[in-house]
């Protein structure tokens, strides 16, 4: 248990001790461990906006790091400013899911700043911003560079064009256990595969549903120049 967690638990136990003389028990008097288990089933808004209003004990518990290891932001359920604020207060974040977001660049910039322990990023039907479909590949590249524990990356129906991002994927391939890009550009796939070939590391994966090694994938690119959408999957 970290020093922060110990401090939170000591404050809660001290507060609970003051009420020990009362014979009446309600939900606010439940042990911290049980309350944390209950809170873990709540959504982000409930946990952030409603739970802290009940009492001081719940306010402290709602900030417990164990409750902020996974975040999911879908469509407009969480405004951009609040999403970034929640990321900032979640330094132990392990898993982030973005679905149908139109502010992905802003959210990813905050991940780059605040969430260096992240392990999984999953994006589904996301845009960089309201005006731009493409997600900024340089931000994703930066996240890959500063987040050494990031081993699972899924970009589904999410456009990334930046060549440097695909090249870095090639260099970090040994670290990534799995990644999926189902709207990859031909140039992006080519950059990744050429990097893999240069590094002389073997790996097999799926390209548009066909299981192939790197060299065969390059041949496929040459033979199918008119395909504009590539489904690109590599797993450990």
TrEMBL record:
Q: Which domain of life is it from?
A: Eukaryota
* Gene3D superfamilies (alphabetical): Ribonuclease Inhibitor (3.80.10.10)
- Biological source species: Cryptotermes secundus
Looking up Pfam families in the UniProt record yields: F-box-like (PF12937)
Q: Region (Disordered): which ranges?
A: 1-23
Record-annotated F-box domain positions:
24-71
The name this protein carries in UniProt is: F-box domain-containing protein
Q: Which InterPro entries match?
A: F-box-like_dom_sf, F-box_dom, LRR_dom_sf
């Amino acid at each position: 248990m970290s020093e922060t967690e110990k401090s939170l638990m000591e404050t809660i136990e001290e507060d609970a001790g003051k009420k020990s003389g009362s014979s009446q028990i309600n939900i606010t008097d439940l042990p911290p461990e049980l309350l944390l288990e209950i809170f873990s089933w709540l959504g982000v808004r409930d946990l952030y906006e409603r739970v802290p209003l009940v009492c001081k004990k719940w306010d402290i518990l709602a900030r417990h790091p164990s409750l902020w290891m996974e975040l999911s932001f879908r469509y407009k359920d969480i405004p951009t400013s609040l999403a970034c604020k929640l990321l900032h207060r979640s330094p132990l974040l392990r898993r982030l899911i973005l679905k149908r977001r139109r502010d992905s660049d802003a959210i990813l910039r905050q991940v780059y700043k605040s969430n260096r322990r992240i392990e999984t990023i999953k994006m589904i039907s996301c845009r960089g911003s309201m005006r731009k479909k493409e997600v900024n590949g340089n931000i994703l590249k930066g996240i890959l560079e500063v987040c050494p524990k990031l081993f699972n990356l899924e970009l589904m129906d999410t456009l990334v064009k930046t060549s440097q991002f695909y090249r870095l994927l090639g260099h970090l391939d040994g670290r990534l256990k799995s990644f999926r890009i189902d709207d990859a550009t031909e140039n992006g796939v080519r950059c990744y595969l050429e990097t893999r070939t240069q590094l002389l590391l073997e790996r097999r994966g799926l390209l548009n549903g066909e299981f192939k090694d790197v060299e065969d994938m390059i041949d496929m690119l040459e033979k199918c120049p008119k395909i504009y959408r590539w489904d690109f999957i590599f797993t450990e």
